[in-house]
Structure prediction request, 381 residues.
Amino acid sequence: MLIVKDFKWSQTEDEICIRVPLKNVSKDKVDIVTHENFIKIHASPYYFEAFLLHTIVEDKSICQLMSDEARFILVKTEPVEWEKLERDFIDNIEKLKVKNEILAKVQENEKEKIKKRLELKDKIRRSEVENAMAKDAEIREKIETVQKQAIQREISKVEEIKKSKKKEIPPKATSRAIDVKKKIEYQEPPPVRQSGSIQISFSKRNFLTPKRESQDPAEQEWLHKASNARKSIGFVPDDLRPEERDPMYLKGKGDDFFRQKNYLAAISAYTTGIQLAKNCFELYLNRSAAQFAQGNYQRCVEDCSKALELLDPPVASNLKARLQALTRRGAALSKLGFVRQAYKEFIAAVKLDPTDELLKHDAEMLRAKIENDYSSEDDND
Prediction:
């Protein structure tokens, strides 16, 4: 990474202009941070940052990307002349501390902006849905009105036809019709049939499609191969007896596999146990150890975080487990290259057990690595 030092700056009564030279840089891969007293731009391989002497109006300040440079136009909070661009620090540690605080505030502000944008987008979407529903209701109401009018017109036509074709019925025919009507009225209705239900059961099947005799050999071959693949890691949940479907039994099996350095089998056992008991912190904690041994550091961090959630509230009886989760998550973060975050994890562990010298030594090693990396950046300047 190249630290840019040959920048130029100028000022007016209300603004600061900073010109940072950038050559052959893609605009799609530029990271820009503008804070009230800090600015930063990272466009690989170039890096530039400045701790401003006075504050600026963050919302009105901009950064323009040109073909060969980046130009910051910063609006002053107060219309005074700046003696210099950057403020001074006692040492690099103070400078790093201030930088971390500023970046934390920037991240928090970005999260808040994203949250507001999402809320506005959701509000607009709900408004659009409500408008669409209201429009659909209006259309349905119009259609129903038209249908009712059409039905009424047809009924009127039928009534008119009946009136035009109506003729007088002879007395005998009328009497005969009345007798027939009486007979029909006194007929007994047929008995109501009894209701019932039919129970249907289906045989167990491992595939979603209907069973076909022509496909049965291929399906059986696939099931056999899948079973062998699961057995190759030393653990098959379907082979467990009913009395063995116990989370603590699965934890013990995972511990045995871990001691035998069969980490994949251990992870499988712990995972099956978690499916049966999702709130058992011991399963997450032990699986994190297997993930770490297997080199799955990201999943190790996730399991440690879940274990710490389940270990809340913190009490004396779960102190040891919380120590393990913090130190293991710190070690995994260090492996992933997040040294500062790893250092915070070990500091939290030291606060839980101040008498552990090994923890203090590991925390000191991480602190020294952070200072060494920062000093290396200053040397490159």
About this structure: The beta strands are 2-3, 8-11, 15-21, 31-35, 38-43, 46-51, 62-65, 69-75.
